[in-house]
Fold this sequence. Notes:
With 217 residues, the protein is α/β, with parallel strands linked by helices. It has a single domain, classed as P-loop containing nucleotide triphosphate hydrolases (Rossmann fold, 3-Layer(aba) Sandwich), CATH 3.40.50. It is 28% helix and 27% strand. The chain has helices at 48-55, 97-107, 114-124, 140-153, 173-185, 197-200; strands at 6-15, 22-32, 37-41, 63-68, 71-72, 82-85, 158-162, 189-193, 205-210, 213-216. The strands form 2 sheets. The chain has a 6-stranded mixed beta sheet, sandwiched between helices. It has a 4-stranded antiparallel beta sheet with strand order 2-1-4-5, covered by helices on one side. A hairpin with a 2-residue loop joins strand 9 (205-210) and strand 10 (213-216). Helix 2 (97-107) crosses helix 3 (114-124) and helix 2 (97-107) runs parallel beside helix 4. The protein binds adenosine-5'-triphosphate. The site of adenosine-5'-triphosphate has 11 residues, from strand 2 and helix 1. GO terms for molecular function: ATP binding; ATP hydrolysis activity; transmembrane transporter activity. This is ABC transporter ATP-binding protein. One of its GO terms (cellular component) is plasma membrane.
Amino acid sequence: MSSPALHAFGLRRRFRHPSGDVEVLRGLELSVDAGELVTVSGRSGSGKSALLALLSGFDEPDAGRVLLAGVPIDGAPPWHTCAVLPQALGLSAELTVAENVALPLRLRPGGEDIEQRVRGLLTDLGVAQLADRYPGEVSFGQQQRVALARAVSGRPKVLLTDEPTAHLDSGSIPAVLELLRDCASQGAAVIVATHDDAVHAIADRRVRLVDGVLAAA
Length: 217
Ligand SMILES: Nc1ncnc2c1ncn2[C@@H]1O[C@H](COP(=O)(O)OP(=O)(O)OP(=O)(O)O)[C@@H](O)[C@H]1O
């Protein structure tokens, strides 16, 4: 039997504060198969971003493990293995919009026409006219779509996105939903932390983060 694309178990994460420690994740378990789109809900401060930081290897758990295709992660994996759209976006200010989106493809060329892939993604997300601008020259909602295009450009096996529709007007949301679904259809395991019912509506499975563990939503 093949391993799930992502399997996390026993995840614990405690943050230290002068006013007292907060244990945000308390033995959390999550398995997501290739081709599956899972949404994670939970009230503000419940730990969704903290969870994605652990799954992406940007943060380390106090206990527990994260396996990608059965292999334990050791720090942040390469983008073609696991790509992240964090809430802070993390676009490179020195690169244009198009250069940002091309970055995962240039780091690991796969025989694909890079310009065509980048143009296609930016067009699908309605930001093709911004290709030659720098991130500081476009709105935050536009940056968010650029960061999503960058996360998916290298066709990662696991895609982690944090509130991908949070700064978008209703007209821009369908293209984002379609892109997330396309990624799953093409075989990625897609995990989306969101408060947006429109995103939950396209999920194969919905889970909710409550008291540091996941339950069916
Ligand atoms: N680096 C950190 N240091 C200390 N506390 C932290 C840190 N990161 C997160 N926390 C705390 O952990 C808890 C979970 O935060 P997190 O950002 O994961 O919540 P969230 O569910 O993503 O919230 P939202 O829906 O508002 O984005 C919060 O109480 C937060 O204050």
